[in-house]
């Protein structure tokens, strides 16, 4: 009983932390769901992204095209087959199928007098039918358009050559495209928008349950009143509770990040698998990046929950927090220009930007590490000061 | 020793049409309505005695005990525990009290022992001391078979016993109990009564015990002195025999009804 106030407060902090950690650990059903979600989420996201990429690849690799009116365009048929593309006749109700999205491939429709108009230089018209609401149809439409443009170019070149004009005058310059992005950056174009966002969502949803249970849950089960009858320091109480919530959030961040390592073997797109490399070091970087976010978000969720008389009431306030932190990373996804420095001041946007750096294998400067951590620390301290006060003032009612 | 000296407390209450209202061309906040929960309650509870705070529902018993527990700040008046002001030295005063709140508020995923040890640690006990105290209380309150069971699923009586053990874990000199027998059956009530008698005896540490209730039998059988409160103020105080003599009744329930529900100024103290 003759302990100094500091050692007493430290003892209380440890006691609160151990109790909250034990309480969260014994809430097996919630814990199981949260951890399962964090482990399964990564592989699922990658599987989804890679399936989309793989579908696009296979559509391009398929080298088949629907062409209606083949008998009216033998020269075009010859050209397409020379490009190693197979030609298929569309089904009888192709247009209906295309309109309803059942058929995903675009259809080239050749008019009956195509060949005749072509010979007499009357600029025959060829139609491409596609459904822009279908991703596959758009890819197939691009392939059809390129083939027809190449055919038109060949026709012009042949006509000019016959009249003694050199091909060089038709094509006065040659454009060479060089992609300066390395493999990681190209892979990040596909995965960068989703993977960091899902890590952040996992942290948010994982922390929310524990944050509500340790604050609004105390009021719901009427345990806050007896708790506040103890001579416990508000800081020890808020800090002990926060440590347990933040520990869970940090664990979820690490588990979600680690889950992307085995998940990359589920990638179904060959190109993406060749480009996407995510190793233990990347997962550790992700975990470190998310630490200040996990801390800040745990404190914020506790602060928004602490005035709730029940978990249900707290949930309403927390949905706003969740939505805000989920929407903030979209700022960087919508911005094609170089990222401004203020991104590093905004929790979740800063973490999204830093995780993109890791995915692109770009170096991270010391200030880029420190600034989000400092912001996270400030937010945490402010939110916990509020939680400490609010726990006492809300003990009754 | 507990001293409650002329305390008063009012609460803001949601008024009809609360919020904002139009006053001419401007919008103003609706004036708050106030409920006077406690107008003027006093009590002096010495060590080694059981003091009953008796009153009908809504008399201000729980609000008074919450002020004593340091959860509410009184609008006026003085609250002291062993000479320590509850409002000015709250933490020190709280360390000298063991309070069984109206809301028992056990942690359902923790065992009875863990509930006790947690509060013991918050009261400044070491883990070892808190564990040893949990064992002692397990024997004192006949809780031994429940110690290592999660409190989820406990009966009302088991819940009250565990909450009482948790309140006593730091061996406080002052014990405050808010409606302790609510929901208890006859046997559990008798056992609790025995425990309280033991605790205020010299063998049990001559504790100062204050308990609020609206049940006459408990007061008759247990209390050394009774403070009767109604409508937020003291109506009478003394031993059960004194109160019977004051009202000229032979039945304590009749005496209480006469004191609490008739506005006889001669009976007011």
Strand and helix order of chain A: HHEHEHEHEHHHHHHHHHHHHH
Assess the beta-strand content of chain A as a share of residues.
under 5%
| Oligomerization | heterodimer
Low-confidence stretches of chain B: none
Structural class of chain B: alpha/beta
Query: What is the overall number of helices of chain A?
Result: 18
Tally of separate domains of chain A = 2
CATH topology of the largest domain in chain B: Rossmann fold
Q: Helical amount among residues of chain A, as a percent range?
A: 55-70%
Please tell me the total number of domains of chain B. 2
Helix-strand makeup class of chain A: mainly alpha
CATH architecture grouping of the largest domain in chain B: 3-Layer(aba) Sandwich
Return Rg of chain A in Å: 30 Å
CATH class of the largest domain in chain B: Alpha Beta
Order of helices and strands of chain B: EEEEEHEEHEHHHEHEHEEHH
- What composes the largest sheet of chain A? 4 strands, mixed
- Gyration radius of chain B (Cα, Å) is 20 Å
The poorly predicted ranges of chain A are none
How would you describe what is shown here?
The complex is a heterodimer of chains A (397) and B (269). Chain A has 397 residues and is mainly alpha-helical. In chain A, 69% of the residues lie in helices and 4% in strands. Chain A has 18 helices and 4 strands. Chain A has helices at 5-26, 28-62, 74-82, 94-100, 114-119, 135-162, 167-170, 183-191, 195-214, 216-220, 224-228, 234-263, 270-275, 280-305, 311-327, 330-334, 349-359, 366-393; strands spanning 64-68, 86-88, 107-109, 127-129. Chain A has a 4-stranded mixed beta sheet, sandwiched between helices. In chain A, α3 (74-82) links the parallel β1 (64-68) and β2. Chain A is elongated and about 105 Å long. In chain A, 39% of the residues are buried. Chain B folds into 2 domains: 2-8 and 37-96 and 174-268, Rossmann fold (3-Layer(aba) Sandwich); 104-171, no CATH class. In chain B, 34% of the residues lie in helices and 27% in strands. Chain B has 9 helices and 12 strands. In chain B, the strands form 3 sheets. Chain B has a 6-stranded mixed beta sheet with strand order 8-9-10-5-11-12, with helices on both faces. Chain B is globular. At the A-B interface, α1 and α11 of A face α2, α3 and α5 of B.
